[in-house]
UniProtKB/TrEMBL annotation:
<keyword id="KW-0677">Repeat</keyword>
<protein>
    <recommendedName>
        <fullName>Pentatricopeptide repeat-containing protein</fullName>
    </recommendedName>
</protein>
<feature type="repeat" description="PPR">
    <location>
        <begin position="106"/>
        <end position="140"/>
    </location>
</feature>
<dbReference type="InterPro" id="IPR002885">
    <property type="entry name" value="PPR_rpt"/>
</dbReference>
<dbReference type="Pfam" id="PF01535">
    <property type="entry name" value="PPR"/>
</dbReference>
<dbReference type="InterPro" id="IPR046960">
    <property type="entry name" value="PPR_At4g14850-like_plant"/>
</dbReference>
<dbReference type="GO" id="GO:0009451">
    <property type="term" value="P:RNA modification"/>
</dbReference>
<dbReference type="Pfam" id="PF13041">
    <property type="entry name" value="PPR_2"/>
</dbReference>
<dbReference type="InterPro" id="IPR011990">
    <property type="entry name" value="TPR-like_helical_dom_sf"/>
</dbReference>
<dbReference type="GO" id="GO:0003723">
    <property type="term" value="F:RNA binding"/>
</dbReference>
<feature type="repeat" description="PPR">
    <location>
        <begin position="207"/>
        <end position="241"/>
    </location>
</feature>
Length: 323
């Protein structure tokens, strides 16, 4: 480029950062600096985002140092970007230092810091920040409310979770799937199946996280039969994709029964490919092998594939002769 300007450099840095080319964004940033151009806010934002995409704490600290030497200092937008960068780099302490130095943190600042605490398993710090934010007159958004509920779940803080839940009702936040799922997880971990079940029943939409949370909650409280009943109900609704995904996360006490339930549901819904896959998974783990062969044979027969059904019955005969 014959006539380079700060605008053209920034355009290049930003383009690299937008497309997660962190190395290229930072290389361009330092090349610009070495060429005698003075970085502005846009330059620093792109460089910090480049550090975030690389999760490079060392480079992030270098850019941070250059920023503090500039005229911009801890502008709230730059500060928020820096908090996010340190969070992705795993340096919670550095993120906290930046947050506490912000003169006027905004909702993005609070959201970022609470999210970082939650990801790092620091439930007490996340909740403390949530209450501090509330006292300062900020209205939490959806992501912050999820963070507060996740913090309660991490701590097993049932009463505090109920207070956050009451706040949701107070401000009229209803039927938000991610919040409902987080409440399910919270109440399940705290052993409050009554509230968990009440939330689950009134949910208009449910996804794999909803089903996993309620079924896991019943298992954690020792209600394995109820968990299996829910798993069966899920399959009766034709949610075989979700059921298969749930099996991968299923607690040990219901794993084999859940696999058999899914295999039976595959016959009901005519999903032979999934049925064969599930059957092979069970056989490979030596779980109820004779019964699985019978169910798989019946599945082939129901789908009009008698040759495969006969082969499975022959294999079952050999297994019985060996036992």
């Amino acid at each position: 480029m014959p006539h380079q300007t700060i605008v053209s450099w920034n355009a290049l840095i930003t383009a690299f950062a937008d497309n997660l080319y962190g190395n290229e964004a930072l290389h361009t940033f330092f090349q610009m600096e070495n060429g005698g151009f003075v970085a502005d806010m846009v330059s620093f934002l792109g460089a910090l985002r480049g550090c975030t995409s690389l999760a490079s704490l060392e480079l992030g600290q270098v850019v941070h140092s250059l920023l503090m030497e500039s005229q911009y200092g801890l502008d709230v937008v730059l500060g928020n970007t820096m908090i996010t960068m340190y969070g992705w780099c795993g340096s919670v302490d550095d993120a906290k230092i930046v947050f506490e130095k912000l003169l006027s943190p905004n909702i993005v600042s609070w959201r970022s810091m609470i999210g970082i605490y939650c990801r790092d398993g620091k439930g007490e710090e996340a909740l403390g920040l949530f209450y501090q934010m509330h006292l300062q007159g900020f209205k939490p958004d959806e992501a912050i409310l999820v963070g507060a509920l996740e913090a309660c779940a991490t701590l097993g803080a049932h009463e505090q979770g109920q207070r956050v839940h009451a706040y949701l009702a107070e401000v009229g936040v209803f039927e938000v799937l991610v919040l409902e799922n987080t409440l399910l997880s919270l109440y399940g971990k705290c052993g409050n199946l009554c509230d968990a079940w009440a939330i689950f029943r009134r949910m208009e939409k449910r996804d794999i996280i909803s089903w996993t949370s309620i079924i896991t909650g019943f298992c954690l409280c020792g209600y394995s039969k109820a968990a299996l009943d829910l798993f069966s109900r899920m399959q009766l609704e034709g949610r075989l994709d979700e059921a298969e995904g749930l099996i991968k996360e299923a607690p040990a006490e219901i794993y084999s029964e859940a696999c058999l339930c899914l295999l039976g549901a595959c016959k009901v819904h005519g999903d032979i490919e999934r049925g064969v896959y599930v059957a092979n998974q069970i056989i490979n783990m030596d779980l109820n092998t004779p019964l699985v062969h019978v169910m798989l044979s019946n599945l082939y027969a129901a789908m009009g594939r008698p040759d495969e059904a006969a082969l499975i019955r022959e294999a079952l005969g050999r297994i019985r002769m060996q036992t």
